[in-house]
Structures are given as structure tokens and as C-alpha cells.
Design goal:
With 580 residues, this protein is an alpha/beta fold. The chain folds into two domains: 306 residues, ABC transporter transmembrane region fold; 238 residues, 3-Layer(aba) Sandwich (Rossmann fold), CATH 3.40.50.300. The protein is built from 19 helices and twelve strands. The strands form three sheets. It has a six-stranded mixed sheet. The longest helix is centred in the middle third of the chain and has 54 residues. Bound molecules: adenosine-5'-triphosphate. Adenosine-5'-triphosphate binds next to helix 10. Adenosine-5'-triphosphate (ATP) binds next to helix 10. It is found in: Cell membrane. Its main location: membrane. GO terms for molecular function: ABC-type oligopeptide transporter activity; ATP binding; ATP hydrolysis activity. This is ABC transporter ATP-binding protein.
């Protein structure tokens, strides 16, 4: 409930619509309530007295009230839709904005599947709740109160029937609403699992086909889909059971009303039209309660959704801008790690332990080590994708935490291990690195990344459209574009995380030459499993089990590091004699 209130400010810009909708609904309800009374008069006065003129007059009045009711109802629909749809669009925008500010740790906590369910399903649920609140929440209680009042004033003899039927109807509604709320929370969780599975499957469709695991994937999808179906069924069944129970209670009320009414008509204390009007009002009361219960269920259901939306919007972003940002002149690109410790989870095992090194501006730093030793994690700390648990990382002697985030990240070019490109033209992808890049700059970057040759062969060159996930490019082509995107911003610190793994030796040497010529004063971090890719580095860091096992030039490491020597010997087949 609290979380739903927290979303309330999002309705503020649409206050006018949110006020007009229920007002117009009041008009519709007033007209609906008028109908049985007019009918009662037609029967008891017009027909009973054979007064045709009276019947026609009241008939026309019925038509007019129906027409006014129609205008009220249509207006309410239009304004409630406007308010709810815009309210939902604003929440979607806010969630998207917030997730864009998320640190990698924040994103890891939610997972992509859950975030997608929140932006789609949960936002739709709160949109529905608002729409129904504006449209029906007023209608239900007004119909109910209006009908009860009219029965009290016009058919008091039959009022005892309401005194029995209404409490039973209310208990039913309360019981089923409470039950359905809990069940819908479970539905949302099952929906998360379906979305996560779908996302994973679409992203890995090629691997699935290559390993011929379609049957396995269908089986695992069926599992989560069946769970969602089962939970949906249970939740819907609760709602669907309510309707026949309520109808049964109302029908009992109708029988009781007719029975009591017949006795009173025989006694001459009641007219037939009153009984007909009472039956109509009883149905309206059920209708009013039913619609109110639907809204209540939708609102209860939306508590879970609002709660999940709140979790995203209120997430504390753990990578924060500095309170007092350092004033920085031109960044040179000297990078220093001082006693850095890092773990992915609180109280988790350290992935990096006591890392200290210094890279002078313009130096090339090679990073090598076994799989999972912490190389990628180490470079992710430089642009503050994660913050260390202890120790510090300095660029030009200033802690990266003191840099304005935008300034820090525009200083760094990052080429991740998995080349991630976006759907759109090659040009748009390159401009991701530098928005205002000229064609000449794009060409130079593409040349440095050995991407020129394949772009030139494309019919549309830089206008060539990439599909989602750049599936119409080869792995090597994706890596080259990903590198060009980083080169184009002329960063002071360039991080290449195993980004030449899918590139042939000739192209790799072109990239290395270009780095020397065009990025001579850039500090370059090259993570590679191949000694040949880092052999010329000014300094090589050997990472083993999250620790800096050794550092130095290739020659120094052959001399001093048994781990490095082992890697070198395995890759080259040459045995190295050491004085160690
Ligand atoms: N987002 C994450 N959440 C939790 N643990 C992670 C995450 N990313 C990596 N790890 C763990 O941290 C350790 C270091 O991973 P990292 O990716 O830094 O290794 P690496 O040396 O770059 O490996 P590779 O050479 O295979 O790329 C591994 O044990 C890995 O399982």
C-alpha cells in the first residue's frame, strides 16, 4: 500500500484528467440509478392508470437519461485512460532512467529478466489499477450507496433482504480479494522466471543450435511456463469463483424479495412496480460491489507491482558522484592501484587481493593470468564499473572516486571482452564513442582497429545497418568495431580486454602498430591470454588467484616469474633457463 502511495506524485501532472474522470462517472451513475425509478413510475402510474401520454413522457426521459449517462461514461473512459496511460509512461521513463544510473552491482542484483518484467508487467498492473480506480472505483460505491438509499426511501418493506444479502456479499469479496492478492504476487515471480529464460534463450540461440539442445531448452522453458500457467490459473480461479457465488446470493435475495413483496402486494401495502425496481436495485448493488471488488483485487495485485517498481526507483546507487569533485586540468593517464581488495558480494571471497602497481602515462600494460584469476575485474575498477572494498585507484594521483563520473569515463576507452554493439548503422555505433565524430575521425579509428577493410567492402559502408546484437557481423568484425568505437574518443586510458581474441595475427599487428603511432601518449591496458599480444608491453602484470604474482617486462618476468615462464613455455614450446 505504502509503495503504491509513493507512486502517487506521478499522477500529479495529470490531476485534471484524474478529477474529470470520476466526476463524469458520477453523471453516468446518477443516470443509471434513475432508470429503475422511472420504470417503476411507468408501471405503477402510467400503465396502472392507462395514461399513454405519461408512459411516453417517462419513456423519453429514460432515453434522455441513458444518453446523458453515455456521454458521462465515454468522457470518464477518455480521461481515465489519458491519466493512466501517461502515468505509466512516466513511471517507465523513470525506471529506465534509474537503471541507466545503476552500477554493475545494482544491475547484477536485479537481473535483466526481473527488470524487464518490472518495466512491462508491473507498470501495466499499476496502470490498470489507476485506470480502474478512476473509472470503476467511483462507480461501484456510488451505485451501491445510491441503490441502498433509494431502496430505503422507496421500498423500505423489502429492506431486510438487503440487510442479510449485503454482509454476505461483502464477506465473500473480502475473502477472495485477500486470497487473490497473495496469489498474484506468486504470478509475478513466475513471470520473472519466464522472462529470464526467454532472454537467455534468445541471446544464446546459436549456442543452443550448435549443441543441438533445442529439446532441452523447450523442456526447461515448459517448466517455467507451466509454473506461470499454474499460478495464473489459481489466481484467476479465485476471481472466477467469486462471480457465481455472488450471483447465487443475489438470486436468493431476488426470491426473498419477490416472496416478501408478493405478501405485501396481497396486503395492499406495496405496488408491483416497487418489486421490479427492488430487483433491479439488488442487481445494481451486486454490480456495484462486484466492480468495487474487481478494483480492489486489481489494486491489491498492483501492491506487489508497485513494491517491485519501488525497489528499482529506491535502489541506492552504490557508485556515487563525489560530493566535492576534484578540479582537474588535462588528464595525462597515469594509473596507480594501491592495496586494492575487491569482492563481488558483501562478505564474499575477495576476487582481487592486495593489488598494487603503477602505470606511467603513455605506458602499455599487459595483463596475463589463468582463467578466472581476476584480470577483467581489475580493469573494471578503473572506470568505476565497481568500486574496491578497500584500497584506492588513482589516475594522475587523484582517486577515481573524486572524479566526476562523466569526466572519468570520457577519459577511458573500454573494449570489453564480449563485443557489444547496438542495432543501427555502423556510424551510429562508432558515434557511441564520440557523438560529434567526423567521417575522417571514423575512418581513422576504423583503420587503427583494422576494421577499414571490411567496412569498405560493404555496399553502404558506414551506413550499413547492424541487426540486434550485430548478428550480421562475424566475431572478429564485431571486435574490430568495438575497438574502433573506443579509439575514436582518443582516450587517455585505453582498456582492451582480450579484444583481439577473434582477430588474425596480421590484423592484430596492424592494431598494435596503430596504437603505437596514433595513441602514443595513451596508457593502454591489454588483457590477453596470448604472450605474443603483450610481449612488447612496458610492464606486464601476472595475476594469479586474484593476486599480483609478479610484474615487469617480458625479459624480467622470464627471469623472475615461474607462472609467466610456465605460460610462455606452454605457448611457444621453448624452454627458458632461469637463474631463479
Ligand atoms: N558479476 C560477477 N558476480 C560475481 N562473481 C563474478 C562476477 N564476474 C566475475 N566473477 C568472478 O570473479 C572471478 C574473476 O573473474 P574475472 O572475469 O575477473 O576473471 P578473468 O581473469 O578476467 O577471467 P578470463 O580470463 O576467463 O576472462 C571469477 O571467479 C568469476 O567467477
Amino acid at each position: 500500500m505504502k509503495s503504491l502511495w509513493k507512486l502517487f506524485p506521478c499522477v500529479k501532472p495529470y490531476t485534471l484528467f484524474a478529477i474529470l474522470a470520476p466526476l463524469l462517472m458520477c453523471v453516468e451513475v446518477a443516470m443509471d440509478l434513475l432508470q429503475p425509478t422511472i420504470m417503476q413510475h411507468i408501471i405503477d402510474v402510467g400503465i396502472a392508470n392507462n395514461d399513454n401520454a405519461y408512459v411516453i413522457k417517462l419513456g423519453l426521459l429514460m432515453l434522455l437519461s441513458a444518453f446523458i449517462g453515455l456521454i458521462g461514461g465515454a468522457g470518464c473512459t477518455i480521461y481515465s485512460t489519458k491519466a493512466a496511460v501517461n502515468f505509466a509512461a512516466d513511471i517507465r521513463r523513470d525506471i529506465f532512467k534509474k537503471t541507466e544510473q545503476f552500477s554493475s552491482k545494482n544491475t547484477d542484483t536485479f537481473g535483466a529478466g526481473k527488470l524487464i518484467t518490472i518495466v512491462t508487467n508491473d507498470v501495466t498492473a499499476v496502470q490498470q489499477a489507476l485506470m480502474m480506480t478512476l473509472r470503476v472505483f467511483v462507480r461501484g460505491p456510488l451505485l451501491f450507496i445510491g441503490s441502498v438509499a433509494i431502496v430505503w426511501f422507496t421500498a423500505r418493506e423489502l429492506f431486510p433482504v438487503l440487510l442479510v444479502a449485503i454482509p454476505i456479499l461483502m464477506v465473500c469479496i473480502y475473502y477472495f480479494s485477500a486470497k487473490s492478492g497473495k496469489l498474484f504476487a506468486k504470478v509475478q515471480k513466475a513471470m520473472d522466471q519466464v522472462n529470464t529464460k526467454l532472454q537467455e534463450t534468445f541471446a544464446g540461440i546459436r549456442v543452443i543450435k550448435a549443441f543441438d539442445r533445442q529439446d532441452y531448452e523447450i523442456k526447461t522453458f515448459r517448466k517455467v511456463n507451466d509454473l506461470l500457467t499454474k499460478r495464473n490459473m489459481s489466481a484467476e480461479q479465485v476471481i472466477l469463483t467469486l462471480m457465481p457465488i455472488m450471483l447465487f446470493v443475489v438470486n436468493l435475495g431476488v426470491v426473498a424479495g419477490m416472496w416478501m413483496g408478493a405478501i405485501k402486494v396481497n396486503e395492499g401495502t406495496l405496488q408491483v412496480g416497487v418489486i421490479l425496481a427492488f430487483i433491479n436495485y439488488l442487481n445494481i448493488i451486486m454490480n456495484g460491489l462486484m466492480t468495487s471488488s474487481h478494483v480492489l483485487m486489481q489494486i491489491t495485485r498492483s501492491f506487489t507491482s508497485a513494491n517491485r517498481i519501488g525497489q528499482v526507483l529506491e535502489t541506492e546507487i552504490d557508485i556515487q558522484e563525489p560530493e566535492i569533485p576534484a578540479s582537474l586540468p588535462q588528464v595525462k593517464g597515469e594509473v596507480e592501484f594501491k592495496d586494492v581488495y575487491f569482492s563481488y558480494s558483501k562478505n564474499g571471497e575477495y576476487v582481487l587481493k592486495n593489488i598494487s602497481f603503477r602505470a606511467k602515462a603513455g605506458e602499455t600494460i599487459g595483463i596475463i593470468g589463468s582463467t578466472g584469476s581476476g584480470k577483467t575485474t581489475l580493469v573494471k575498477l578503473i572506470p568505476r564499473l565497481y568500486d574496491p572494498d578497500s584500497g584506492s585507484i588513482l589516475i594522475d594521483g587523484v582517486n577515481v572516486k573524486d572524479y566526476p563520473l562523466e569526466r572519468l569515463r570520457e577519459t577511458i576507452g573500454f573494449v570489453p571482452q564480449k563485443a557489444t554493439l547496438f542495432s543501427g548503422a555502423i556510424e551510429e555505433n562508432l558515434r557511441y564513442g564520440k557523438e560529434e565524430a567526423s567521417l575522417l575521425e571514423m575512418e581513422e579509428a576504423a583503420k587503427s582497429a583494422a576494421a577499414m577493410e571490411f567496412i569498405d567492402k560493404l555496399e553502404d559502408k558506414y551506413d550499413h545497418e547492424l541487426m540486434q546484437g550485430a548478428t550480421n557481423l562475424s566475431g572478429g568484425q564485431k571486435q574490430r568495431l568495438s575497438m574502433a568505437r573506443a579509439f575514436i574518443r582518443q582516450p587517455k586510458v585505453l582498456i582492451l580486454d582480450d579484444s583481439t581474441s577473434a582477430i588474425d595475427a596480421l590484423s592484430e599487428s596492424i592494431v598494435q602498430q596503430a596504437l603505437k603511432q596514433n595513441h602514443a601518449d595513451t596508457s593502454v591496458f591489454i588483457i590477453s591470454a596470448k604472450v605474443s599480444s603483450i610481449i612488447d608491453a612496458d610492464q606486464i602484470l601476472v595475476i594469479e588467484d586474484g593476486m599480483l604474482e609478479a610484474s615487469g617486462t617480458h625479459t624480467e618476468l622470464l627471469e623472475n616469474s615461474s607462472v609467466y615462464r610456465g605460460i610462455y613455455e606452454t605457448q611457444t614450446g621453448k624452454e627458458v633457463y632461469s637463474y631463479e
